[in-house]
Amino acid sequence: MSVSHLSLVSVQPFLMAASAGTYCELQHSRDHFLTEISCFELARHTQVKLVPDCFSSLLLRCGGDFDPVMAAPADAPERSLDLPQGAYYCVRFTPLSSYALYRVLGGMREFSGRVLDARAIFPDIGELCRSLSGEPVRAQARRAINAYFDTKLRHSPIDPVVHRAISDIIVSNGSITGAGLSAACGLSSRQLYNIFRGRVGLSPKSFSRALRFQNALYRLVKPTDVPFTPYEFNYYDQSHFLHEFKACCGMLPAQLLALLGGC
């Protein structure tokens, strides 16, 4: 079975939602921006639906006619991607990367929920794509991707207010109130909203909603021996969870699991 990234949920039954680990880690290896690199293969042309996510995802194809794309953080189902047959790498970025990645576009005030041409952000990314087509070993390809983004993001600024707000939201799994978050950051609600929205692409409330959904989605597709309950993801009750999940995914959890079970 081919595996995609967690932020990609197929609208067809032959692509599986993937595991991307928990989102409690803001920092990966030497920086605060890159969290993981996953690889998947598609046996046929596939339409993939984007679902809410507070992380950014870069999609690279190993050779072929596919321009690399960057999926910006989103709090609602937005659009679908038509992916040709082939092998792909998905590069996962933390929410702190938004400031570094999207400010280079200049004047783009609203980048959330958009699929952007990655070449507008990284003009030389075509060279990386070409190098990946010649990498037979995935470990070598991951090293090449890590090295590329290490040079791009190494000296990027991190807004301390955004860092504090993101940390508090993640530690609380999205349950911290707006008033509590504002007090922790020492700002008014309006000031925090404007800073957070401008740097991350989502409001703190939308960020919390996407985070809870992604964590619940991960838990569903990677079950454990502990029974699933909506309360562990700070949903009020089962009805609230089902309503939120369908709003984010377009289907109920049981329908998604049936879809994945048929893959």
Label this structure with key terms.
263 residues; alpha+beta; Arc Repressor Mutant, subunit A; three-stranded antiparallel beta sheet; disordered N terminus; sequence-specific DNA binding; DNA-binding; HTH_AraC; transcription
Shape descriptor: globular
The DSSP helix count reads 10
Number of structural units classed as domains: 2
Number of strands: 8
Low-confidence stretches: 1-6, 11-30
Whole-Å distance between the termini? Answer: 7 Å
Oligomer designation = single chain
**Major β-sheet strand ordering:** 2-7-4-5-8
Please indicate the percent range of residues in DSSP E strands (runs of 2 or more): 15-25%
Main pleated-sheet profile? 5 strands, antiparallel
**What letter string, H or E per element, gives the SSE order?**
EEEEEEEHEHHHHHHHHH
Helix content: 25-40%
Domain HTH araC/xylS-type: 160-259
Protein name: AraC family transcriptional regulator
Keywords: DNA-binding, Transcription, Transcription regulation
GO molecular function: DNA-binding transcription factor activity; sequence-specific DNA binding
Structure overview:
Pfam families: HTH_18 (PF12833). Residues 160-259 form the HTH araC/xylS-type domain. Keywords: DNA-binding, Transcription, Transcription regulation. The chain folds into two domains: 8-153; 160-261, Homeodomain-like (Arc Repressor Mutant, subunit A), CATH 1.10.10.60. Residues 1-6 and 11-30 have low confidence and may be disordered. The N and C termini lie close together (7 Å). 40% of the residues lie in helices and 16% in strands. It contains ten helices and eight strands. The chain has helices at residues 97-102, 118-121, 125-132, 138-153, 160-171, 178-185, 189-200, 204-221, 238-249, 253-261, and strands at residues 8-10, 34-42, 46-50, 56-61, 69-71, 80-83, 86-93, 115-117. The strands form two sheets. Strands 2-7-4-5-8 form a five-stranded antiparallel beta sheet. It has a three-stranded antiparallel beta sheet with strand order 1-3-6, with no helix packed on it. Strand 4 and strand 5 (69-71) form a beta hairpin. Helix 5 (160-171) crosses helix 6 and helix 5 packs across helix 8. It has 263 residues and is of the alpha+beta class.
